[in-house]
Specification:
single chain, mainly beta, 52 strands, about 50% strand, about 10% helix
């Protein structure tokens, strides 16, 4: 048999050739697969991107409609079905801002307000910048308002501050003492409530919505009342909601033009008219007394921008209050004081004599001194305007028979000398007489501060969260309080056993002096705790506690050519949660994201692209209106790779500005800021002026709309109107969204 075995060389060669051919085919197929995998993955990524883009485009349309037209309690529903990626919420990388200037030929830019550190930068090269005042907007779910109640108060009375659209359900209000809840109440719109503090001492009022809060000592007093929605340009307004206690209360309204006033108490509405006298250097005043038999709420609306003085229990002359200048700051050159019998206290914090004049009279105030004027003069000419040739502050006391305004019984805030606001770093108080014992209360308006008392009182110390207030008896002479390092303070003056004070929430008007004019960026403090590098859990806790601002309104105070302390412009900077669909294409890190009404993506190749731009209502003419949808997930929201249902509810909508502006800007967080700015100005392609003179806004006359800022590499756009004044309206819609996975 062995002899029959023989080697077939041709067969062996054929077999080897077949194996080699098969191996070669496999190698070729493998190489083809390797080279085609990125293409396949990119095609899959393209499918995922376009599929989720269409779903988020529908979500953006629903959210925009709800934000602009919905009422509290209205909701919309959306379902997002991922292909192969994950849907996640990101609270740390989404944000945008608007800015507007209130003075002609001035610009305002800002950056760094959303960086989680304790600094921000502004850029305003046209005039001297005196100060920056920052207010926490308290945006997002579970971020309550806090109102610190001094131990001197006997009672606190409050009502809900109405907005453009208010919650239908009750507002949760609690009184906290030493970190423990002592009392609580469910408060509805048009209802008022109060807490007795006489046996409690220092406490904190916590509310799930903004309130109008009055702190009371005794049974009478007077206070300046901010409107429900103050205009950022001068802090005037058209509407007030006042919690009234049993008895008689005087309402005193001041405006520069004829005024129609509506006063509603319960179901009864009365209409009143206030007309000008026609004389120069005069304005319009209106006084009305309300007598109620039980605690209730009065709603006041006016046709003309106005200011309001409230005097409770009109049968006595108790009450004293700081009064703002025409710019809205408490330090200024022009005032319209109340036309009610009283005494004006004029204080001059400067180094030179200031002359104050009014129709038919005047007075000089020495450097660092004060002067008292019985007011109003013996004339019936209407409300008189005061003009000063330097910076002064004004306080109104309810009695015109005082030997000195230091004798006035009541409670008032003392404005800061360096910022002209309700907080700051330098304060002076002059006590000329001591027939009525006066007490000064100073407390922290920030996170930490090192302070010093000089002249009539000598003391120093450091304020922290656990030790943030001091009280002294005001000595005769001048008491100077200054911050040597850290954040601003607030100063309160009390005297006698009676007083009334309109309280702002703890995160409002934290003012820091700047005192600089520069063509570049100016760095200033953000008076809250630094949160850079902390976890998202720590950040959310800081937002809830108020240790770091959830979103901010930044008011820049400077010279308008006449007043040194005028509002130059305002920046609104919002932390907005991003809903991101994360997937993997030929490379990792791709996403389609929804934030602030815009749908954006970085697919492919990490190139930022705008699928749906943020909505606004520009034109016709020099008009611009926008509603910012502030969308935030609730605590029990889910995320992941499964099918998710989104229930979006409008909580409330508020007005941030409705006033003429000279420049409006919008900026967006990177990596999509530049892309959004560029996409907003797509209409520039048809402009001949922009084609011939690119980057020259001063020569752009054939286009109205967004223009990307000509500066290199900015994520900003400017609303261009050919130099015309812009009718500017900005609203904010607070939306709570609950996401839950669909169980199949």
């Amino acid at each position: 048999m062995r002899g029959q075995l023989r080697r077939e060389d041709e067969a062996v060669s054929a077999a080897v050739a077949t194996v080699l051919l098969f191996g070669g085919v496999l190698s070729i197929i493998g190489l083809m697969m390797i080279s085609m995998m990125p293409v396949i993955e990119e095609m899959e990524g393209s499918v995922e991107r376009h599929d989720m883009s269409s779903q988020m485009t529908l979500l953006a349309h629903q959210t925009s409609t709800l934000s602009e037209r919905g009422m509290p309690g209205d909701s919309t529903h959306a379902t997002l079905i991922p292909v192969d990626g994950n849907l996640v919420w990101d609270s740390m990388r989404g944000g945008m801002w608007y800015s507007a200037t209130w003075q002609e030929d001035m610009t305002l830019r800002a950056r760094g307000a959303l960086d989680f550190d304790d600094e921000l930068e502004i850029r305003h090269p046209e005039s001297f910048v005196e100060a920056v005042c920052v207010t926490d907007l308290r945006l997002g779910p579970d971020r309550p308002y806090y109102y610190t109640l001094e131990s001197l108060l006997d009672r606190v009375v409050f009502t809900v501050t109405p907005g453009l659209a208010m919650p239908l359900g009750p507002i949760d209000v609690a009184l906290t003492v030493d970190g423990e809840e002592a009392e609580n109440v469910a408060l509805r719109v048009d209802e008022t409530a109060s807490f007795d503090l006489s046996s409690i001492g220092e406490a904190v009022l916590t509310s799930s919505h903004g309130l109008t809060v009055f702190g009371e000592t005794g049974d009478s007093g007077a206070t300046y009342v901010l409107p429900n929605a103050p205009e950022p340009s001068d802090k005037k307004g058209h509407a007030w909601s006042i919690p009234l206690k049993e008895g008689t209360t005087a309402l005193h309204l001041l405006s520069q033009k004829a005024n129609q006033i509506h006063i509603t108490v319960g179901e009864e509405t009365s209409i009143h008219y206030a007309l000008p006298s026609g004389l120069s250097r005069t304005a319009v005043a209106f006084t009305h007394e309300l007598t109620v038999e039980a605690d209730t709420v009065a709603h006041i609306t006016t046709s003309s921008p106005s200011r309001l003085l409230l005097k409770s229990n009109t049968g006595n002359d108790h009450g004293i209050t700081a009064w703002p200048s025409m710019t809205g700051m408490y330090l200024g050159h022009e005032f319209l004081p109340p036309l009610m019998n009283g005494t004006l206290r004029l204080a001059n914090p400067g180094d030179a004599v200031v002359t104050v004049t009014w129709r038919g009279g005047g007075i000089s105030v020495a450097a660092g001194g004060v002067e008292d004027v019985s007011w109003p003069p013996a004339t019936d000419e209407g409300a008189l305007l005061l003009d000063a040739d330097g910076d002064v502050s004004l306080v109104w006391a309810a009695s015109n028979s005082l030997n000195s305004s230091n004798d006035a019984v009541g409670t008032t805030m003392i404005p800061a000398d360096d910022t002209g606001g309700s907080s700051g770093g330098v304060f002076t108080y002059v006590n000329e007489q001591n027939t009525t014992a006066e007490t000064l209360h100073y407390r922290l308006a920030g996170y930490t501060s090192t302070w010093n008392l000089t002249e009539a009182a000598n003391a120093s110390g450091v304020f922290l969260d656990s030790n943030n207030r001091e009280t002294i008896a005001a000595p005769l002479g001048t008491t100077a309080l200054s911050v040597t390092a850290g954040h601003p303070l607030r100063l309160l003056r009390t005297a006698g056993g009676h007083g009334l004070n309109h309280l702002s929430h703890d995160g409002a008007d934290r003012c820091t002096a700047v005192a600089t004019q520069a063509s570049g960026w100016i760095t200033t403090d953000l008076p809250w705790e630094r949160m850079g590098g902390r976890s998202e859990v720590d950040l959310h806790a800081a937002w809830i506690d108020g240790r770091h601002p959830a979103s901010v309104a930044i008011d820049v105070i400077g010279s308008d050519g006449i007043a040194t302390h005028a509002s130059i412009g305002t920046v609104w900077s919002f932390h907005l949660s991003r809903l991101a669909y994360q997937f993997q294409s030929s490379i990792a890190g791709m996403e389609v994201a929804f934030s602030g009404g815009a749908v954006v993506t970085n697919h492919p190749e990490f190139n930022p692209y705008v699928i749906v731009p943020p909505s606004d209502r520009g034109g016709p003419g020099p008009r611009f209106a926008a509603t910012v949808p502030s969308l935030h997930p609730t605590a029990n929201s889910e995320s992941g790779g499964g099918e998710l249902e989104l229930d979006i509810e409008l909580v409330h909508r508020m007005s941030l500005a409705s006033t003429p502006a000279y420049e409006v800007r919008r900026g967006w967080s990177e990596p999509y800021g530049t892309a959004i700015a560029d996409s907003a100005g797509i209409g520039l392609e048809a402009s001949e002026d922009w084609t011939v003179y690119p980057g020259r806004l001063d020569l752009l006359t054939d286009y109205v709309g967004w223009v990307p800022d000509p500066s290199y590499g900015t994520a900003e756009a400017v609303w261009h109107t050919n130099g015309e004044v812009i009718e500017f309206t900005l609203q904010l819609a607070s939306l709570d969204v609950t996401t839950r996975e669909v169980m199949v």
